[in-house]
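$ fold --in a.seq
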Amino acid sequence: MPSKNEPLRSRTGCEDPRPVARQRLNCQSAALATMALVAATAFASGAARAQDATWLPTPSSGNFNIGANWNSATVPTGTAFFGTSNTTTLAFSANTAIGGWTFNAGAPAYTFTNNQAVTFNGAGIIGSPAITNIITGFLNFTGNSTAGSAAITANGPLNFNLNSTAGNAIITNNFDMNFNNHSTAGGATITNNGTLFFNDNSTAGNATIHNNDFMHFVDNSTAGNAAITNTSGALTDFSSSTGPAGDDKLTAGSIAGAGLFQLGANELTVGGNNLSTEVSGVISGIGGSLVKVGTGTLNWTRASGPSEAGS
């Protein structure tokens, strides 16, 4: 497991040779800036000429990007509606900017496989489709969009930008997942098997996060009222964020499990969700502190070492 001052590596192999503290990866920042520009352009152009359409009951294929598969004979850019159809397994053949997907009452289960760049720039997802983002695909939520109740398997980059939210989605992240700007994890259930970054002023909200790898809070981000559980060998790193107010104070609804919780010099307040939890891992941070609030109990079963935070 990397120490505080070791360079972080993304799943793309990029590396920042500078100390980690309060800095993001150069390559990650450049990629996010590019994606933000694409999303902003898609949002501006889409708002001017957004068109709604409904997926046909008997389309010629499962290709989302073929106009003949829609009742308007044009691929929608506003809201895509889905109802009864004999084709409910869809894929993409082009980069796609869309306001949202709405699954009508009585619609069957739809599944989507994405190997392109798909960006939600309007309402987002209303319903509970299954989405698999393969390694060459980008899945982006921007504006005020939501992931709704989707089941998302992210084997490629997954990004929440601006004021978007993960909603109540069930997300399995196997690659790189980022919350940027003022986005939130909402009430999502997230299993992290890759790298998960909360950047800028983002928050983990009220999410339930099972962290099996690396999760980092940087800039002014915070874990909010989220329930965070580490497995053995996992790292949850708060040390690179100065908190929402820039005063080195962050919150998390609760922390639990093994691995390492790295506080750095921050004060982390936990217990706001009133859950009772047990931490068997290390809570570490030179100059950091852990504050317990709420009605639940926090049982820390590991003896504190010289570099571990007090409580």
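$ fold --in b.seq
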Amino acid sequence: MDNSTTVCGRTFTPQLIQHLNNMLIEQPHISHATLAREVCERLHWCSPKGQLCLSSAKVALHKLQDLKLIQLPEAKSLPATPHRLRASGQPLPGIEKVPCRVDQVRNLQLHLISGADDSLHSLWNDLIIQQHPCGNAPLVGAQMRYLIGSEHGWLGALGFGPATFCLSARDCWIGWSTNARLRHLQEVVGLSRFLIRQEVHCTNLASKVLSLALSRLTDDWQTRYGIRPLLVETFVDRSRFTGHCFSAASWMRLGTSMGRGRLGPQTPSKTPKDIWVRTLCSDARQQLQKELPKPVTPCSLQESLEVGNWCAHEMDGLDLGDVRLNNRAEAILAERWKDPTASFSASFPDWGQAKRRIRPYRTETFGDQHGKSSQTAYGSHYRKDVCRAIGLAAAGHKQPELQRIARNQWPRFHQPSRKSGLFLHSLLAYRPDGIPLGVLEAKAWGVQRSIRTTPEHATLSLLMRRKACAGWRL
């Protein structure tokens, strides 16, 4: 295998796949969790909260197995009883004198379930198990649960979870590409449970609760998962419900599902349902349509050079509009790679061959002929450069503190009436988020008071001082 493979929005290089296969050979009974952790660490696959995306990595491993790139060990036998919501066995708490109009309900509010340790977690389960059509079916993935409370008692419950992977009506309405969907799907939240207790009959209560939930969902979801949702979706079974409460709460009906479920199997297995969506900001569709760059995995220079055919690896994914131009560009790089220190013309037998090689790629004509900028055409090379240089930016270091020390400890180097003293020229490395990584290089020099220079030397010295005091980036 010479080309990289992209699954679950992550790029698996041939080196990484070979590393996984070596682990499987050395440890035949290695667990899927261990392999998923290795993948996350190698690809720097983390959530916005900094947690390893182990579940997504396991899905990626199974897709690699479907592509016959790896062979996973057999998973341990699943438990006889699948995971389900657990009932507490206690009767539901009663409710008292619920008004028939929502504006008469006293102290209507939502209570966020903080987790399995929350004292009201079992009550949420009991309400859903006993009165919701889904019964004890569990919520999967990221989730947010609320109880609908009031002075009259607990009136119902809501549950939010991840969005559907593929949904034709929603995807057409948003207008996003496959790449944009894979990048932004985590910003879409699904309303997977919505229950108003059967004994509660209160006009407009459902639409009021939906408004209360959406008013706080954005902040609550971001606090828990570090992601700010832009859109909420849900499904309504028209054979049981009308969905009027969603219309009253300003939701939009997009169409009908295909009945394939959240994972989208080819054969419909569920009842078709109405699709309703609600945007959480005015430009939600525009933000979901944005094409984000592919995740970059840092790669050391040594690791890049150890690739067998470096030129082919560097130009992997090159698109110049013509396969002949792609091959010629790779051939040029191979000639240059023989002696990287030589000039371009010296890389070829004579100037005529060098000129013929570079003519099709002239900047002033290439873009007009092929409709591509150089950065777009050579995107593969640019991305690999980013992988090798990710996280590093150099900046000059100013030296007022060092000059203050010099005045005290080395007075012969200090002239109060002139711009002189002990100069420090340092090169620092920073991560993109501003965290310093260390000093790459530092040079110091001083000018003695007795030194007399010519005007030419004085000009050069002044330029050196200006350069030493200014900051710059690489």
